Amino acid sequence: MDDAGPQGSSEQIWSVFEFARRYRLAEREENRLFMLYGPTASLRDLLANAQRHSFIPQSADS
What is the pTM of this model? Predict the structure, then answer.
């Protein structure tokens, strides 16, 4: 993947597909980000707008 800036820069341009794979996002979230930004976006925007959903079941006792 080609980066637009130096390593660690939040201005790097990422493929939404690669971002979703790297951060293990659900396909639905990947599609939401794709609809929001198109095929690429800055790392800063992706990190700020990505939503990860927890798969940890909640106890009925709580």
Answer: 0.68
In whole angstroms, give the CA distance from residue 37 to residue 57: 31
Q: What whole-number distance in Å separates Cα of residue 16 and Cα of residue 26?
A: 12
Q: What is the pLDDT of residues 10-51, one digit of tens each?
A: 589 999 999 999 999 999 999 999 999 999 999 999 999 998
Q: Which residue has the higher pLDDT, 37 or 8?
A: 37
Q: Which residues contact 27 (CB under 8 A, 6 or more apart)?
A: 20
CA distance readout (Å), 18 to 26, 53, 59, 60: 12, 18, 34, 36
- Which amino acid is it at 7? Q
